[in-house]
C-alpha cells in the first residue's frame, strides 16, 4: 500500500466518537474556561459584539449523559464504539411560545430528558410525566437512544417526537402538549436501525413531512449481543459495509411507507449526519449525508419522484474523509447556501480539515458546482469535530459558526494515535474485525480539545473568539443547537457532551445590533413549515434561511428563523417561499420582534 495513503487511512478510523470515563470527568471540568470577568465581558461586547455565560445549573438543567455499555467482546475499544449518543433537539412542544428541548441518554436504565421552558428563566424536566423518558431499559431487545428530531407529522399543530436509536426507532405523538403517545408500531417503522441521524422533510411537497433515517452500523448487528466481532468498516476511505439509508413516505393516515430503493437512496455508507435544503432552486429539498470512512453524498431531488447521488459531479464527492456534520448557511449574504461538513484534524498526526462547500456556478440543477472554501475562509481546522451550527451570534447581519470538538479525553499523558495506526494498513479482513483493533487501555485520542466559535467579519473571513467571549469548552462535545431560550433577541448555544454534563451558554449581544425572527405555520404546506424559505432584504443586502427538520450532528435548532441585522437597519421586505409553491411578501416588517406568519391560501 502507498505509504502516504496508508498513513492517511490509518488515522481516519477514529471517528466513531467517544466519551470520557467517569473518573476523567473531574479532570475535564478543570479544563473548562472560567467565567469571563466583568472587564472581559465588556471588552468582548465592545470588540466582538457579544459574550457568553454558562448557565445550565442556574436554569435548573442538571443533565449528565452516560454512554452505552455494549457486548463485552468490545470492551478493549469500548470508548470508540460507544462514542456517540449525546444529542439535543429544540421545539415548543406545548405551544406556549417558549423553546423547550429534548436530551438523549444512552446507558442501560438511564432516562432521557424533556426540559420544559417555564417562561420565568427556569426549566423543568417533564420527560417522565410526558411519557418520553424511559427508552433505554432493555438495550438487547430495543436498543438505546442516539438522538431525536421534532416534526408535526399529522398536521395537528403540535410537534411530534422521533427518537432514533441503535435499535428500534420510536415515534411519539404529541397529545396537544399534555403528554405523548407511543405510535411506533402502527407507524410502520423498522424493527432495528443502528442510526446516528434522522431528518423530517417533505420531499414530494404533498403537505406532509416524510422521514429519513441514516444507518451507521449495519442494521443486522445487535451491538449488545454480537454474532461476530466483524462489525467494523472494511476500509478507512471507501467503506460500504455500514447501515442502510431509510426513506419513509408519510401516507397521511398515521403510517409511513418505506420508499428508499424506488427513490434512489441505495447506499450502505456509514452515515453520521444528514440535512435537507433546496440547493439548486428547483423548489424541492435536496439531501446531504455526511459519511464516516468515505465520501459524503449529495442527493439531488428530481421533482419529488427520484433522488440522484451527484456529489462527485458537483465536486464534493472525490475526497474521502470522516464526515460527521451537515449544516447550511448563507454566509456571504448571496442567497446561496454553503454546506459545512466536519472531519478530523490533529496537529502533527492528521489534518483532514473541515469542509465548507460553496456554490461557484449557476444553481440550476444540472450545473450545481461546489468548491471547498473552508481554508480560504478560516474555518478548516477545528479539531476532532462533531456538531456545528450557523447562526448570527452577535446580530451583526452575518452568520457565525459554532463547532464542537473532542473525541476521547482520558489519560492526558497516554496517547492512542500511534498504537491504533498499526491496524490501518492491514487487509480489510483485519480492519473489519474488532478483535484486531489495539486495546485503548485508558488512553486519550484527540481529547481535551476546545470548541471553536468563529465569527463572520462580513468580508469573507472568520475569526476564532471562543476564549475571548467566554464560550470555550474542553469537554468531548457532540451536538450543538441554537435557540433564544430567554427571548431577548439573541441566540443561546446548547451543547451536549459525551459522557459529560449538558451545557447552556447564554448570549449577551451589543444592544445596538437589531434582530428579527419569523415563526412560520403552514396550511397547504406541512404545519411545521419545514422546507419553507425566507429571504430577507435590508440595507442593500439579503440573507436566505430555511426551516429545518434537523441540522448538524444529532441536533435540531429552534423552529423560528432568526436574522441579525446590525445597527439601524432598513428592511425592505421578507420574501417567503412555501413548500406548496406559494410565494408571500412581507413589506418592511417590524424589527426586534418575532413575526408569526401563517401561509396564505394562495398567492
Task: Give the helix/strand layout.
Elements: H1 3-12, H2 25-30, H3 38-48, E1 50-54, H4 78-81, E2 88-91, E3 100-103, E4 113-117, E5 123-125, H5 127-130, H6 139-142, E6 143-151, E7 160-167, E8 170-174, E9 180-182, H7 184-187, E10 193-201, E11 210-217, E12 245-250, E13 256-258, E14 270-277, E15 286-292, E16 297-302, E17 306-309, H8 311-314, E18 327-329, E19 338-341, E20 345-346, E21 350-351, E22 355-359, E23 370-372, H9 374-377, E24 385-391, E25 400-405, E26 411-415, H10 417-421, H11 428-431, E27 443-444, E28 452-456, E29 462-464, H12 466-469, E30 477-483, E31 492-497, E32 503-509, E33 514-521, E34 533-538, E35 541-546, E36 555-556, E37 561-566, E38 571-577, E39 583-587, E40 594-598
Parallel strand pairs: 2-36, 26-27, 33-40
Antiparallel strand pairs: 1-32, 2-3, 3-4, 4-5, 6-7, 7-8, 7-10, 8-9, 10-11, 11-12, 12-13, 14-15, 15-16, 16-17, 18-19, 19-22, 20-21, 22-23, 24-25, 25-28, 28-29, 30-31, 31-32, 33-37, 34-35, 34-38, 38-39
